[in-house]
User: Which sequence fits this backbone?
């Protein structure tokens, strides 16, 4: 079956075809039994789908609107509640890391002072000498 003819056949169900397209489709239908069978199959499917009725249970729209109202009425967590919930999970590991770093500074420098924590080692003395004054 020609793919172009199949596309024309499908499009013919929902849209107007030009005269040349209609002639091309008619010639294809006359020449191809497979295309005619496909047309019958598509017509059968369209008829079956057209006969189906969709029904909702009673009070469907009331139940949907009630659910929407419930979702809107639910209390969202406050930012402070979220922070307090996650604070222990962040604070304890952070404290452990700080203690390990302070221990590392103490073992490396021999003391714990602001200068040793910041990594400052008598830098002012090495920059200035007595001759500079």
Assistant:
């Amino acid at each position: 079956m020609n793919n172009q003819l199949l596309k024309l056949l499908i499009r013919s169900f929902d849209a107007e075809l030009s005269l040349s397209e209609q002639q091309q489709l008619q010639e294809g239908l006359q020449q191809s039994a497979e295309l005619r069978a496909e047309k019958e199959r598509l017509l059968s499917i369209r008829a079956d789908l057209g006969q189906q009725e969709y029904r909702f249970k009673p009070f469907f729209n009331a139940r949907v609107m009630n659910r929407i109202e419930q979702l809107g009425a639910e209390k969202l967590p406050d930012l402070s509640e979220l922070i307090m919930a996650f604070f222990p999970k962040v604070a304890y590991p952070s404290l452990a890391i700080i203690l390990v770093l302070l221990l590392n500074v103490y073992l490396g420098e021999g003391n714990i002072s602001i200068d040793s924590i910041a990594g400052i080692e008598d830098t002012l003395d090495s920059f200035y000498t007595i001759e500079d004054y």
In short: Residues 60 and 66 are 10 Å apart (CA to CA). The chain has a mean pLDDT of 82. Residues 79-109 form the longest helix (31 residues). The chain has two domains: 3-51, 79-132.
